[in-house]
Design a protein that fits this description.
122 residues; mainly alpha; 2 domains; 5 helices; elongated
Length: 122
């Protein structure tokens, strides 16, 4: 992912060890920018250039990649033209209403699921 974003100047391509200072500054600028994006998206808790370059513990790197995968999966659903916030809200409201209706039936006098002397807090 970051190789594609950074291109040939990615810190992951160690082919050319003799990079002049201008290229190094541009590379650092890109890494800093990616770290700021990762922080903004909630992938990292702070602007962490070390995490962007794949440094850190194994667990930190796994968590970093898991969060990226979650964002990619979320973006797949966001691109679904058939999905609508209004339709999803209507489905959610219908589900909550259905649950409330079932709860009312269970706790009703007619159901007699619980003896009259049992106090039920809802």
């Amino acid at each position: 992912l970051f190789f594609r974003l950074l291109g040939d100047r990615s810190p992951f391509t160690q082919q050319n060890w003799q990079v002049d200072s201008l290229d190094r500054d541009e590379e650092n600028s890109r890494i800093q920018h990616l770290a700021e994006i990762a922080n903004f998206l909630g992938i990292t808790p702070s602007v962490d250039t070390e995490a962007i370059q794949g440094r850190g513990s194994y667990d930190e790197r796994v968590e970093f990649l898991r969060l990226i995968v979650d964002l990619v999966e979320a973006s797949c659903y966001a691109d679904n033209p058939e999905w609508s916030v209004d339709e999803q809200l209507a489905k959610d409201v219908q589900l909550v209403d259905s649950i409330a209706e079932k709860q009312a039936q269970i706790f009703s006098e007619e159901c007699k699921l619980f003896p009259a002397d049992v106090q039920i807090q809802s």
